[in-house]
Amino acid ABC transporter ATP-binding protein
Amino acid sequence: MNNSIPAITFDNIEKNFGSLKVLKGISGEINRGEVVAIIGSSGCGKSTLLRCFNRLETINAGHLTVNGIEIHTKKFSNRQLRQLRTQVGMVFQQFNLFPHLSVLENLTLAPRKVLGKTPKESAQLAGLYLEKVGLFDKASAYPEQLSGGQKQRVAIARSLCMNPQIILFDEPTSALDPELVGEVLQVMQQLAAEGMTMVVVTHEMQFAREAAHRVIFMDQGIVAEQGPAFQVISHPQSTRLRTFLSRLN
Ligand code: ADP
Ligand code: MG
């Protein structure tokens, strides 16, 4: 892996759903080891942008590279797509755990099916990452037996089992009761400190200020303001961003 190539670049990308223009020529980059928070009002296109990064959505115009490879071209093969999905992990607001599988089975499924690991190897990996998120003792529990915060920590551990280079988080704490937000942010903060490349759509400004290197403020499908986290959150330049931040408090 060439460390001088950005993890993700996006150049003038446009995304429409029918006649609705959601991304309107948006550009930027995510550098290796960088933690970038994406903020902005509901409906401004944050999830859509994130989903373009691992090709859960296609784009209508522009260029998007992951690890230096353009991913939205006809040449991009199914084999490359499978590889992309292992390199770029995703953690969703609603956890998306398999309800009929135990925690351990949730974690070992993709390493076995996609990476071809043996049951023993995948169980070892799962144990390692469950330990990391503080849930080693929940290996045989089922998702419904866990709190929201525990479910999200399992989802993060599941993502880590694929040894991703980048993890995308789409409002990972928005579905949680307030008292459970902290335990998830703590795990994310630890990953950030270890150098994981992370793109985090979030409304948690304290997390963004403390854990993110950079903040991108999106407004109606464009980057309206961006810069170092402290600067964007504590010294917003535009009226739009000031208004957005004041509504959060
Ligand atoms: P955010 O994550 O910032 O709240 P989204 O990216 O989810 O915003 O959505 C941006 C806009 O695109 C919204 O108006 C939403 O309704 C619309 N949208 C998102 N996904 C789809 C889809 N699959 N089909 C049609 N419209 C969509
Ligand atoms: Mg969203």
